[in-house]
Amino acid sequence: MQFGAILSALQNFASLELWLFIGLGTVIGLIFGLIPGISGMLAITLMLPFIFVMTPMQALPLMMTIMAIQFMGGAISAILLNLPGTPGSSATLIDGFPMTQKGEGGRALGAAQMASGLGNVLTAFVALLVIPLILPMIVALRSADMVFIILLGITFIGILATGSMIKGLLSGCVGLMISFIGFQPTSGADRFIFNSPYLYDGIALIPLLLGLFALPEMVALAARGGTIARTQTVIKGSADVLRGVKDVLIHWPLVLRSQLIGFIAGAIPGVGASPATFIAYGQAKATSKHKETFGKGNVEGVIAVESANNACESGALLTTLALGIPGSPIMALMLGAITMLGLVPGPQMLTQNLDLSITLIWVIAVSGVIGVAICLPLAPHLSRVAFIPGHILVPIVLVLALTGAYGYHRLYNDVLVALIFGVVGLAMRRFDFNRPALLLGFILGPIFEKFFFIALKADGPLFFVRPISLALIAITIAVIAFGPIKDIIRHRRGVSESPKRAEHGLKLGGNGYIYIILVAISLFVLVWSFTEIPTFQSRLLPVAIGGIILLLAAIGLRHELLYGDKPESHGEKDTSFMAQETWRGYVVNLSWVAGFLLAIYLVGYLISIPLFVLFYMKRLGARWLTSIISTVLATSSIYVMFEIFLDLELYRGLFLMWLGY
Predict the structure, then answer these.
(1) What is the pLDDT of residue 503?
(2) What does the pLDDT read at residue 48?
(3) E strands present in 214-296
(4) Does residue 233 have a pLDDT over 70?
(5) Is the dihedral angle over the CA atoms 424, 613, 649, 335 positive or is it negative?
(6) pLDDT surpassing 90 at residue 384
(7) Closest CA to 542 of 184, 270, 186
């Protein structure tokens, strides 16, 4: 690396024009990251038509800033509303939202923003230092190694399970199975599409994510009333935010470990931020002195995730520039932009255009500093969202989530998918199954399948017989076996007691019915795979995962029948708080959501939104004046945001389309 190129890159920052584009990218990245369903991917897509009139030194820093800063915006909505603004922020809500429920939203935001900023700054310097070292390592990885890297990530599903490991593994396997819906990428055979053209490309991530996390929390909040925060602790303004900043500095070893995980994951082509954040979360829990508090509002979980997802972009940029291979899905758009600007991605970016490449790495660091400077002062005010009455917050968040689900592909079916997974997420929340684990399995499924068949085709059935793969297998086995071996040792030493048989005989609780449903689903998957999926290659993984689901569900059902489900084993739910929620409340509020979707189908968004917000808010107990003002603000904001700013025509409904509108 030439020292002159580093100096040339630094000199570029003397240009006011470059700072203007970085500032513009910061604002766009924060806004698009904050709005659920409208991620940085869409922001970059909207920028592509405009880069023809820009120079590389204008267009690429603008896009790089949007990519680097989007996670800061995504963390805000994940922490405050349980709506991850970006897929990379999905793991943030595991502990971020419970902290908000405890009245510690300001602390969580402070920790998230500080960890994100450090993730940008420190890994940018690392990227500069390791350019000569990391490229040979990346080139040495084969598809077989990628298979076991992903399997290692999947094993953390069990660690992520805050209660039962069986429930965590089941949730992850169900996520994997959902990812198999659609055409199999190598054979082209269809799987589980049931003659529906909508399912040809599988289930979309954003509707699933919004349904799984946003809808259950809002329906539950409407069912019990009150606010998101489960305590009336007075918000201490900047004191809470500064406490979160201090948490990051105290846990600096965790920050460095998580950044390393994010950087390496970003540098590996095709992995991206989402798997990296879950792996970082898993190692944070595994090394913490307070494992039992993870999933219930542990700031270490927030720090680990936010350190990793921002660090991921530096690694992904390095791979994209050096090899011409996108290190993450959003970097594929960056690669297209580089090509559109007349540059050649690959080794030439580190030789002929080294100063531009280093400038982009510096942009990541600078955007992190600017993002922290903007977000930290706003955090005390944003944290007050947790204390907004539910009768105001619920209708507005539901409208935002269901509109965001439509905006992803502009398909009404995406809204129905969000509702379906809202019901699934509500059941998982009620019976303590692990929603983040399901999401992780869904994200890793296509990546795992791709590398599995590439490895199988290239190296045959023994593709795993190579040093890196064998080492990864050994680590995976150790991670899986650690918990059970530890329990056996504790039992033999008399530290823990053996589980006692339930006194109620074979009476089933709610968990038992869920296990029975999973057994039935797995049997259906196995029968359908052997009778309807034509090729062995296409049915191999669905059969394997279906068999694992059947086995795990049978084990869970046996345990439920023999020992029952102990309330103290619950991880995701707070039983004392959840006692305020009733099934009747769930059904009533889900019926309102279903009615909203029916209204959208008939008369479109622009008529349905004001009717839904006005009458649902009034039904939840708001005053008429509050309902009317909120309705006007919500409807106008959605219209400006989607119809004008994003130039996205909202669904008009059958009736208006019949009239020609």
Answers:
(1) 55
(2) 66
(3) none
(4) no
(5) negative
(6) no
(7) 184
DSSP string, 19-73: HHHHHHHHHHHHHHHHSTT--HHHHHHHHGGGGGGS-HHHHHHHHHHHHHHHHHH
SS (H, E, C) 591-633: HHHHHHHHHHHHHCHHHHHHHHHHHHHHHCCCCHHHHHHHHHH
Span 31-77, pLDDT tens digits: 777 765 556 666 776 676 567 678 888 888 888 888 888 878 778 87
**Rounded-to-10 torsion of CA 390, 395, 401, 407:** -160
Question: Which tokens hold the place of 22?
Answer: 């970085």
In this predicted model, what pLDDT tens digit does every residue of 390-447 receive, in sequence order?
888 889 889 988 888 887 788 999 999 999 999 999 998 888 887 877 877 887 788 7
Closest residue by Cα to residue 312 from 344, 340, 275: 275
Q: Provide DSSP, 360-393.
A: HHHHHHHHHHHHHHHHHHHHHHHGGGGGS-HHHH
User: CA-to-CA distance for 157 and 14, rounded, in angstroms?
Assistant: 47
Helix (H, G, I), strand (E, B) or coil at 182: strand
Which long-range contacts link 95-98 to residues 24+ away (Cβ below 8 Å)? Answer: 95/294, 95/295, 95/296, 95/297, 95/298, 95/299, 95/300, 95/301, 95/302, 96/301, 96/302, 97/217, 98/295, 98/296, 98/297
pTM given for the model: 0.69
Q: Which helix (H) or strand (E) holds 108?
A: helix 105-140
- CA-to-CA dists, residue 220 to 68, 153, 432, angstroms: 33, 31, 14
pLDDT tens digits for range 136-148: 665 666 778 777 7
HSE-CB at 434 with a 13 A cutoff on CA atoms is 36
pLDDT mean over 74-93: 76
Bridge partners of 182?
A: 191
**SS3 of residue 183 by DSSP:** strand
Q: How confident is the model at residue 323 (pLDDT cuts 50, 70, 90)?
A: low
Q: Is the dihedral of CA 208, 329, 151, 266 positive or negative?
A: negative
> 505, exposed or middle or buried, with CB in 10 Å at 0-12, 13-18, 19+?
exposed
Contact at 8 Å (CB) between 298 and 288? yes
Q: How much is the CA Rg of the chain, to the nearest whole Å?
A: 24
Find out whether 182 and 199 touch, Cβ atoms under 8 Å.
Answer: yes
Among the residue ranges 51-55, 241-245, 585-589, 627-631, the one predicted with the least confidence is: 51-55
The type of residue at 426 is L
Q: How far is CA 364 from CA 33, 90, 327, 467, in A?
A: 16, 21, 15, 35
By the 8 A CB rule, do 288 and 300 touch? yes
pLDDT over threshold 80, residue 201: yes
Assess contact for 275 and 443: CB atoms under 8 A.
Answer: yes
